[in-house]
Amino acid sequence: MDKKFLVRILALTMVVVLVHTYLNREFLFSEADELDLNINTILELNSDSSGDTEETKAEEPKGEEEHRSTEEPKAEGETESENELNSEEKPVILLKSSDGTTGEGGEDGNGDGTGDGDNQEGQDQNGQEGQGQDGQNGQGGQEGQDGQEGQNGQGQEGQEGQNGQTQNGEPTGDNEDDKFTVTVKEGIENVAIQISNYNPVKDDTVSISATPDEGYSLKSLTVKTTDTESPADVALTHTDGNNYEFTQPEANVIIDASAEIVSYTIATPTTAQTECSIQIQSILKQPESISDGSTNACVGDKVVLAVTSKVGCVLSSITVTASTGNTIDAVKNFDNNYEFIMPAANIDSIVAVFTDFIILEEATKPFIVNANGNAIPQVGDRLTACTHALPNIQWKWYADDVFIEGATEQILVLTEKELGKTIRVQAIQPRNAAGEGRPGTDIYIMSDATPAVIAKVIGTITPEEVTAVTVYDYVNETINVTEAYELSLSDSVLEGQASLAITEILDREVNRVVYVRRKATDIAPASEWLPVFLSERPAAPTVSVENAVLSDWDYGKLVGTTAAMEYKLTSDPGFTRASDSYTRVKVGKYIVRYAASTTAFAGKTAEFTVRRQCIELTSQNKPVIVNITASRSQPVIGDTLEVQVNAGPGLSYQWYLNSSPISGATDVRYNLPASTYNKRISVRVTQAANVDGEGHPASAITASSDFVGPVKKVPGDSISESEIKGRLSYNYPMEVVAVSAGYEISTGSGSSGASSLKLTSVLDRNSAKYIYGRKKASDWQEASSWVKVSIPERPASPGNLTTESASSETAVDGKIIGTSQAMEYKMSGASSYTQASPGTTLVKAGTYFVRVAATGSNFASKYVTVKVESKTKKTDTTLKTKTTTKKSSKKSSSTKKETEEEDDEDLDFDLIDKSELWKTLSQDIKDGLRELLEESKGELVDANDLLDPTAIPGSKIAVNDMPIALVIGKGVIVIELDKIASGVILPDAYAVARGILTEEQIDLISRGGIVELKIATDSVIEDRIPAEEKAVFENSFTEYSGDYPNLTKAGYMEINISYKFYTHEWKEVTETLEPIEFVFELPDDLKNTSESFYMIRVHDGQGALLSDLDEDVNTVTICSTQFSNYLLVRTPEVQLATEEAGDDEADEKGNNPIKFFVTHQWPILFWGLVGLDVVYIAIRKIRKFRRNKRLATAK
């Protein structure tokens, strides 16, 4: 081995050892004392464990102060090694009791793990954390010598020992350590859960009964493990009905369930009597109801029935039958309708029976129904008198058998006068009530008496309570109360609502009041209704009007508005926020008011009308024709033209074709039919006299527009490459391609094409091996746009060819070896190829091109160049592939000097041209560049590599203070950075061009043309961010704040990208083809800080976080394909938290990461340095070997 290498190894070893010793000097003299462990204590703890019993796995201690290694979990029976014990803390043994509780075996004064199990955390039989009691379920330990308390250790009073042994080691029965806990999650509503076994062992079958409340169905039932980092679902098996079972896993589990209210169907009400009807009028839903329409309802909903009977026929009964077979009472309400409460079952039938006569007798004795549902009537209850007798029953109500004055209706509402009295009702069927002498006399029958009326049981409610539960939605103008309360527009209704629309109430001048009360519960009645008085709307605003004038014909102004106001056209459904000072609005009638705020409803309204001033038509203000179909000046067949004129009102129109009026074309718009092709269009406008009633104008005025057109054909259809490919046919030997009728092809996207093309020049290109195709123009439609079409490439050139020299310059005995009959060759300069011979082809001396001949499905291959030497010359036989070289002819010094002078004269403005590209450009391109760059200056850069997508990019060209003009073929791409906000750089101009322009556009530019790319950046005030976009920014900021602590906003900015071809309009780009990199300079107050910066981008309603791609503390670099608004955010660098003592010696010694690395990882450092040295020596050896070999070859 090299002696120098050994010396390097020894020197490196000595350096590393010295550094390691110096950095660990404190460890060498003090660390041994710090890591000294009480070995006797550990041995005593191990000897005090419970005999031969198997030690259970310890639970991890909670709290940041109790550090434990998390690299590998302890297996059962495994004791902690000495290296894992904290040198500054006494060892702690975690023990698990037989009922699942876990504690720590404490250490008494003599090192014994004895003591009481009091107050240690564990789990009771329901799986909840509880407190151990007197060590009964603790770890079976030994008697402590001093009786000090241990943690969950079995004390002297303990009853149960681990592994089924008592304190004295006697068997106790089953091993309780194998049992697990099954618990039911708290807060489950509308489902009753019952479990067969709360403490099963592994593989036990546990049964669950999940019974939903009446009117509800079970929505979900899950069993999950609770003592694992990732809770796992336990498989459930449905046995029958509401019963399920599962197999107990090796973990505690928790059961969760949910229920959903059921919607039951309601049958269509029916009646057998013709001309009588019964139907569902409405369904009053309770808060949880999910019913929709009138054919279904949930339990507790109130179904209201509307009954209609014919003259002389009355309702006898309504029978509501549920699917359970039960019948439900339908009682009459104040609206003379009937209602019933929906049960927890489908309603199979609702049958109304009508009759013309049922005699009042004991069988049809009247009875009283309390609509409030109270068994004992209360003051305020609604009593309904009922009987099956028909028709024309009359009623009289009695209190303690004394007639109640005026009480002759079927419904009686109890008052204070009836307090303490029993109530009866007398039914009277008058003589001849049903006609034909039926009945023969008046019939009187009294009902049974109710219990004595008691006072109304009403809960109390205070104004403060009402204020606390009432919530106003000032924008939507609703009032809402919390779940336990209800609202009403009256204090006499029996039921209220959770929410009320109060727009109509707020619009009142007086009586702006609603009522609130506390709902009745199972243990307390409803409170009294308490009025809530609504405040008056704010006063209407006062503004003035500026009518629309000539310069802004469609818009006037509401002057004096503020941002706190809103307005709308009287015909519009919604309001729009006004602007400060004045608001520009269209002509029309407006309603203006102060908008609702977070503390006040919208104000009263005022009406204002914005009108047009009468503007007379003049010959100087000619009508203008505008194409509203597309923004193009050249109209085509099918376009709609519109006349615009700054005059009115009272205008009429007449359209003209060339100089002839078009019949029926008298509207403001005119659609161009096929008959207008190649003709010019104009319009004549006439304003009638005295259109404003004040003599303006004095007489009719006529003015004509300029002609537009002539009208052209419809633009060509958009076609695809596949459409053209499907119509191509190739003649591979002739290297010709043809296209079917109706289409044309070309080698360039020029103005004309052909039905066939010779492809030889295209096939021989190094790149851009494609042609163009399009659909030809027709009588009514223009040709389509050119589409780039790829063509088959030449196969690879033949290989393994060698040559033998000819005997003389004229002898045909030179050889090309390795040919076949499928190949062909020609001498350099020849016009055609000759078929080669199999194996060897005899030729004269010279240079030859050899290729594989064309077939019926392939073009001729690429060729290789071979040279056959003559033995009369001393030359080398070579084999090379076709290459392309560029040669520059030398010019005389005088010619060169004259050219330079001409170029200097031509380039007459400040433009950097290091590669002398200016003189290669056409005069049109030069003129265009001069117009663009004469003031802003710029630099010409050769960018012809953009034409080859496979080219490897060279060095990047940055766009900063001045534009960059990329010269590509015969055209130029000008990239300009419009930095409204300074300090922005585009590092790669090539990437900008590729990202914005397609390959087709770049190819088109290379044929001659100029395109401008403009990238504008600017800061944005937060208030100018649209509300929807700002909401996305806020949501994204909140989301990322959870991942990046102390995230703060630094400011908004926008990036706008647009381009235009020299004579066309600007087009905006929001998404690029490839990512574009931006470098932003930070403000001075944010430079040189330890903060991390990010960009939140919002594009198409989606937020994304972009990281800073550079390490410069003064800039932020991002790369993106989407451009709109950005938010710069920052977060301070968070230093890594130091570990506790004993976890990391490097942190103990001063948080020195370099020291820590060298101290602990010095072998890696050492061998890394050795490896680098070995590689260095190996490279030197290889270079020396190669150099010697070349010298030997040269000799």
Explained architecture:
The chain has 1195 residues and is an alpha+beta fold. It folds into eleven domains: 1-36 and 1136-1195, no CATH class; 40-178, no CATH class; 189-261; 262-356, no CATH class; 359-457, Immunoglobulin-like (Sandwich), CATH 2.60.40.2700; 463-533, no CATH class; 544-610, no CATH class; 624-704; and more. It contains 15 helices and 74 strands. Strands 63, 64, 65, 67, 68, 69, 71, 72 and 74 form a nine-stranded mixed β-sheet that branches. It has a five-stranded antiparallel β-sheet with strand order 58-57-60-61-62, with no helix packed on it. Strands 6-7-10-9 form a four-stranded antiparallel β-sheet, with no helix packed on it. Helix 1 (3-23) runs antiparallel to helix 15. The longest helix has 33 residues, at 1162-1194. The radius of gyration is 49 Å and the shape is extended. Mean pLDDT is 78; it is low at 26-174, 874-905 and 1134-1151. It comes from Pseudobutyrivibrio xylanivorans DSM 14809. Residues 129-144 have a biased composition (Gly residues).
